């Protein structure tokens, strides 16, 4: 086996050591537990009312893991409440963009827009590792330090008033978040044109979607537990910092060669505050989209991320997508087939949702036990707690982390013991 984990190529040797200290043994890992976009691609397939989807001809790409709704975030109704964390959702002015690089000192009218920023020529592009909603991602070498990093070209498409809001939002968010389970943005660099902006990120050898597609052997229960624990720790950090990710899915989860899972792609993320303000329900890639979004709720909460976490949990257990709907109507049908038909008694406020009057299939039973006959009761209880219709009753991230699933045997595998795989992307990709 081509074990990339053994290579000492990680750019943060010391950081990694510190991280490893946290996971000294499986036992301490367990104890911790106890304490505990594709604008262009999407243009032709914006979500519509269920009725409009009927009989739609869908291109097979619709079924791919990359389908999402980042184009929809232009329709935000404004959602950054007072006290909503340190990231505002208002249109950033150039000064606040400058400040996010953290290295620009005072702005004088004579300085170019990006002042002292490093430039992309400081990096040698090695190969393309991903192409998503807002841009291409390269594996690259920092010519000065020799570090291998990921360079994400941010598509700077001008929006109504000339500023690429979605991109600025992502940069701003990512520069604020620092956690082992969230991809580290090391710098922001510019290209030859000022509208070429790249995020310099720590490089991760895999994304979880590519691994799922290429590795036929399913994860063991102890491996799934390790991955879920890390995912939930990353989500906990986001929610503690008033950030809702809104696009959690396997292709936005990276895995480095030390088995550390990193949440990436904050292109759809938002800060939130109290009282909550309406947000667009057209978020989250269909397969991972919470029922309140599918039924048109614009007052949703961090619970949408918890639903996605439930879908990811199911996918890791089954080694196949849990709810792979092609259109919204089919997505709702698949959810109903798995969990039964929603109604006011189990989901308070359901009848008031914009799409609740739609004719739904009759299904009285929850099929989680049939679909997952070989998992423990605790695993099924966590799955069911995450895949709960009523967002108010759905497990919060802290409740999920405190769930007996993380206490019962088998203990979560230590990240460094996760199976290693060759870096398929580098073998297959082009420059
Ligand atoms: N830091 C990184 N290290 C390695 N690969 C990455 C990194 N960031 C992104 N990628 C790869 O690029 C793909 C697209 O990146 P992502 O940030 O999700 O952009 P998009 O907004 O275009 O979906 C990911 O699915 C992953 O395969
Ligand atoms: Mg992505």
UniProtKB/TrEMBL annotation:
Residue stretches making up the Protein kinase domain: 123-406
Ranges annotated as biased composition (Low complexity): 53-75
Positions contributing to ATP binding: 152
SMART domains: S_TKc
Gene3D superfamilies cross-referenced by the UniProt entry: Phosphorylase Kinase, domain 1, Transferase(Phosphotransferase) domain 1
Record-level GO BP terms: positive regulation of embryonic development; regulation of mitotic cell cycle
Segments of skewed composition (Polar residues): 24-37
Catalytic activity: L-threonyl-[protein] + ATP = O-phospho-L-threonyl-[protein] + ADP + H(+); L-seryl-[protein] + ATP = O-phospho-L-seryl-[protein] + ADP + H(+)
SUPFAM superfamilies reported for this sequence: Protein kinase-like (PK-like) (SSF56112)
Top EC class for this record: transferase
A GO molecular-function annotation: ATP binding
E.C. number(s) listed in UniProt: 2.7.11.22
InterPro entries documented for this protein: CDK (IPR050108), Kinase-like_dom_sf (IPR011009), Prot_kinase_dom (IPR000719), Protein_kinase_ATP_BS (IPR017441), Ser/Thr_kinase_AS (IPR008271)
Biased composition (Basic and acidic residues): 1-23, 38-52
One Pfam entry name: Pkinase
Keywords from the UniProt entry: ATP-binding, Kinase, Nucleotide-binding, Serine/threonine-protein kinase, Transferase
Membership in a protein family: Belongs to the protein kinase superfamily. CMGC Ser/Thr protein kinase family. CDC2/CDKX subfamily.
Protein's name in the database: cyclin-dependent kinase
Organism: Lobosporangium transversale
């Amino acid at each position: 086996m081509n074990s990339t984990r053994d290579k000492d190529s990680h750019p943060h040797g010391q950081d990694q050591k510190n991280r490893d200290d946290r996971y000294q043994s499986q036992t301490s890992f367990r104890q911790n537990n106890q304490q505990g976009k594709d604008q262009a691609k999407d243009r032709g397939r914006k979500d519509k009312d269920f009725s409009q989807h009927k009989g739609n001809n869908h291109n097979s790409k619709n079924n791919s893991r990359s389908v999402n709704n980042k184009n929809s975030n232009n329709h935000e109704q404004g959602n950054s409440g007072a006290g909503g964390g340190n990231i505002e959702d208002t249109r950033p002015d150039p000064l606040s963009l400058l400040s996010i690089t953290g290295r620009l000192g005072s702005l004088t009218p004579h300085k170019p827009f990006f002042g002292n920023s490093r430039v992309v020529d400081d990096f040698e592009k090695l190969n393309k590792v991903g192409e998503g909603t807002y841009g291409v991602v390269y594996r690259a070498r920092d010519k000065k330090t020799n570090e291998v990093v990921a360079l994400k070209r941010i598509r700077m498409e001008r929006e109504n008033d000339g500023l690429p809001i979605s991109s600025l939002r992502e940069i701003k968010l990512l520069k604020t978040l620092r956690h082992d389970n969230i991809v580290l943005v090391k710098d922001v660099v510019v290209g030859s044109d000022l509208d070429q902006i790249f995020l310099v990120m720590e490089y991760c050898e895999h994304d979880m979607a590519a691994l799922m597609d290429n590795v036929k052997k399913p994860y063991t229960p102890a491996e799934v537990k390790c991955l879920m624990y890390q995912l939930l720790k990353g989500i906990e950090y986001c929610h503690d910092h008033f950030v809702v990710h809104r696009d959690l899915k396997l292709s936005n989860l990276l895995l480095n060669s030390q088995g550390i899972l990193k949440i990436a792609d904050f292109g759809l993320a938002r800060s939130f505050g109290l009282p909550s303000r309406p947000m667009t329900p057209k978020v989250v890639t269909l397969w991972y989209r919470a029922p309140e979004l599918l039924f048109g709720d614009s007052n949703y909460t961090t619970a949408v991320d918890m639903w996605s976490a439930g879908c990811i949990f199911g996918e890791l257990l089954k080694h196949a997508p849990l709810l792979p709907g092609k259109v919204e109507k089919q997505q709702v049908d698949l959810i109903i087939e798995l969990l039964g038909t929603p109604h006011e008694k189990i989901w308070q406020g359901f009848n008031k949702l914009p799409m609740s009057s739609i004719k739904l299939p009759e299904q009285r039973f929850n099929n989680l036990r049939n679909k997952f006959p070989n998992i423990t009761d605790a695993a099924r209880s966590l799955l069911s707690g995450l895949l709960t219709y009523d967002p108010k009753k759905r497990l919060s991230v802290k409740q999920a982390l405190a769930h007996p699933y993380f206490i019962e045997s088998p203990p979560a595998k230590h990240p460094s013991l996760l199976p290693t795989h060759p870096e398929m992307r580098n073998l297959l990709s082009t420059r």
